[in-house]
Amino acid sequence: DQVLHIVPETFQQVQHLQHLCSTLLLDLWKPLLPEDIWAGENLHIRVPAPLVQEVKDSLDQHMISYKVLIPDVQELVDQSMPRERSSHRQVPEGYVYTEYHPMEEIYQWMTQIQKSNSELVTQHYLGKTIENRTMYYLQISQPSDKTKKIIWMDCGIHAREWISPAFCQWFVKEILQNYQSDPKISRFLQNLDLYVLPVLNIDGYIYSWEKDRLWRKNRSPHMNGTCYGTDLNRNFNSSWGSIGVSYNCSSEIFCGSGPESEPETRAVAQLIERKKSDILCYLTIHSYGQYILTPYGSTTKPPSNSEELMHVAEKAAAALMGKHGTSYEVGSTALILYSNSGSSRDWAHMIGIPFSYTFELRDKGTHGFVLPSDQIQPTCEETM
Amino acid sequence: DIDGVGHKYHLELVLEDVLDRDATVNCTAEVLYHLGNQNIAPDVQFTLEGELKNTDDADNIFYNRIKSLEKELVAENIPDSHGNVSPEMEPIRLLAWVASGYVIWQNSTENTKFQLAQIKRVKQVKRSDEYLEFDYMILLHEMVSQEVIPWQMTVLWRPQHGVQVTQ
């Protein structure tokens, strides 16, 4: 967006400017109303980026001279936001949880979160991505004598589902901000440890910021670098490659060259395998669709603890709806969505983790993957 | 199941106005998916129990605004990566939604679930008659295959005359 400075010289020019402002709904900074535009007086108009050329052409055509007062409004806005590095607060000052953040900022956020909450939070190395980036998870754990059961949550297994990592960050913030004041949270932490992986598919996430907003898979090269990406949520060792997948790299649901062929998958699987006897619940966060999905995707045969799984999920959906009225459907993937194999949720359940759920967050397709940031707060609040 | 013909579904649904969540209209519909030939769009019959809102005012404002543009409208990435749509582009997006509905209908089978994911590019095409013409390049997301499919569509519209789509 640009802000133009114009001093209209004649009444005709004033009229044309008024016409331009009202038909294009331009943002008048000075004066406030088109009717207050006068010849000989300073005029400041903010022109949205896609209309800049059009407006300038129009001004040229009518011999109206202008100056560019602000060449890039966004840049100015960014510069004016303080980016502070405070280690005296519980959560980083200036970190805006109601916006989407690129990976670099998320890395910084993790470091910051641990620093300012070191009594509760430790950052752990999980593994490396195919492009050699480091994967970290955060452990939120109240010091205690007893070994506690673990709840694992990962976000961002699919690159384009930006609301998912946004939720993981929000979740951590909420826990850390409220564990002393909220009795539910403090009781939670007395008995449970939380392991949160804010971005599982780091390479893919970065790619969706830099190159292709709707990218889904990781960035592993195939066929001599002519094709990229395995769907990490088809790559786990749960009936791998049997249904709802493609063996072709060019597909969005390419399951990889074999179960756990991808370093990201292996990094997660190895940790969970190691700790599985202590893990009570496995949560994996996706978008979109508004579902709470239970195992399995690869078969319609219900899991052994199906009743309990459904009961808990239904309570969750009801609680979620209580917040903003958003309705979530609950059920097994194979029954209410589509068949798929190799999903992390199925795998977690198959190795013995009793409660395993996939959350598909907002919305139902109106915005799909490109959920506006003004929905981050309500989505996270209700999911919390 | 209709032997030799296809699968027929009887639906009772509620239509909700995206711009005004309280405005709802009940609807019953019958959808017939044809056997075998996946290239024929499903047959759809429907009845609305009530009336759709009158949009003449908003239609005319948008129509006049576009008509009075000195240069043909061009825009990209609606919404942008962060989900934002500028107010000027909102009607352009709504138009794409309606038009993509037609494209989706023409290409749907019992095993697909399409949504409009994003408008990559839109270009207004100059016309000498009363119609507005827009050339859209859109991205459709298909839920089962998870594929994102680019699609070119040309859309004609004028107030009170509905939307026409030529692919």
Automatic annotation (TrEMBL), chain A:
GO terms for biological process: proteolysis. Residues 99-384 form the Peptidase M14 domain. It is a lipid-anchor; GPI-anchor. GO terms for molecular function: metallocarboxypeptidase activity; zinc ion binding. The active site is at residue 360. The keyword Ribonucleoprotein does not apply. It holds the Pfam family Peptidase_M14. SMART domains: Zn_pept. Transmembrane segments: none annotated. It is found in: Apical cell membrane. One of its GO terms (cellular component) is extracellular space. Its main location: membrane. Keywords: Carboxypeptidase, Cell membrane, Disulfide bond, Glycoprotein, GPI-anchor, Hydrolase, Lipoprotein, Membrane, Metal-binding, Metalloprotease, Protease, Signal, Zinc. It comes from the Eukaryota. Its cofactor is Zn(2+). The keyword Protease applies. Belongs to the peptidase M14 family. Carboxypeptidase which preferentially cleaves C-terminal acidic residues from peptides and proteins. Can also cleave C-terminal hydrophobic amino acids, with a preference for small residues over large residues. This is Carboxypeptidase O.
From TrEMBL, chain B:
This is Latexin. SUPFAM superfamilies: Cystatin/monellin. Belongs to the protease inhibitor I47 (latexin) family. It comes from Leptosomus discolor (Madagascar cuckoo roller). Residues 1-54, 74-167 form the Cystatin LXN-type domain. Keywords: Protease inhibitor, Repeat. The keyword Repeat applies. GO terms for molecular function: metalloendopeptidase inhibitor activity. One of its GO terms (cellular component) is extracellular space. Pfam families: LXN. PROSITE patterns: CYSTATIN_LXN (PS52033). The lineage of its organism: Eukaryota, Metazoa, Chordata, Craniata, Vertebrata. The keyword Ribosomal protein does not apply.
